[in-house]
Design a protein that fits this description.
Layout lengths: L2 H21 L4 H6 L5 H10 L12 H12 L5 E6 L5 H9 L5 E8 L2 H5 L8 E5 L13 E5 L7 H12 L5 E6 L20 H10 L2 E8 L2 E2 L4 E2 L2 E7 L2
Helix pairs in contact: 1-3
């Protein structure tokens, strides 16, 4: 058998194994084999588990809104990009909050095609992009990038590639929400989280690629079952 075909069949089999395991709530295979997957594998897996898992979009709305208010005091009109928009719940709330003069456009990116097809947003400023490539290969012509609980599903190398693209773009502000515990240590859990950095390492990477922290908000939330430690980072361009 042709080696290229053999490799493709092996990866397809692996993607199927990951999908079936994830549906059963086991993400060990996903984490262990993440680096072997390409963007098409991840699109297929994420779309496949869509109907079997709960909400895949988490965000602290008040925290994100507060950071956008800070940015609007500096940039009176914003074009927004959101990485990991899912069905658009964050976009819907923000667009209902801010006028057309404050937010001109809002572009949501996601690899979960069924979620985009089920968008809850009805606003002419909102458009979605079904990703067919890694995020760092897109031209990011906007003022601010928001991404809540998405970056932890990428590895460190992908974060750095993304920051190279961001540094070369027109983006001036970044709003990122990630799970770190109260000591700033990684709080990934037994799920599809890939990134393994503490908060200091994460902020250092941001600085290396031209962005500094202007505020940080503890957005920890508690349920009956668990305490979810998470932080919201507001970053601004320094070069």
């Amino acid at each position: 058998m042709n080696k290229e075909i053999e490799t493709k069949l092996r990866i397809d089999s692996l993607a199927m194994h990951i999908l079936l395991s994830a549906i059963e709530g086991n993400f060990d295979v996903w984490r262990e084999n993440y680096d072997l997957l390409d963007i098409n594998d991840l699109i297929w897996i994420n779309s496949g588990i869509h109907n079997f898992v709960g909400s895949q979009q988490h965000f602290n709305y008040e925290g994100v809104k507060d950071l956008i208010d800070i940015v609007l005091n500096r940039v009176p009109e914003l074009d927004i990009i959101e990485l990991g928009c899912w069905k658009g719940h964050l976009a819907k709330r923000l667009l209902s909050e801010f006028t057309n003069k404050e937010v001109n456009t809002y572009v949501g990116y996601d690899i979960n095609y069924p979620a985009i097809d089920q968008s809850v947003v009805n606003d002419s400023r909102y458009i979605t992009i079904k990703m067919t490539d890694w995020f760092y290969n897109y031209e990011l012509d906007s003022d601010i990038l928001i991404s809540c609980h998405t970056l932890e599903h990428m590895n460190e190398a992908q974060i750095k590639k993304m920051m190279i693209t961001i540094n070369e773009s027109s983006l001036k502000y970044l709003i990122f929400e990630l799970p770190f515990n109260y000591k700033g240590l990684w709080n990934g859990g037994n799920n599809s989280h890939i990134l393994k950095l503490n908060s200091e390492e994460f902020v250092k990477i941001m600085e290396e690629y031209g962005f500094k922290l202007f505020t940080i908000i503890d957005t920890t939330r508690e349920t009956r079952e668990k305490i979810y430690n998470q932080w919201l980072f507001g970053l601004e361009r320094i070069r």
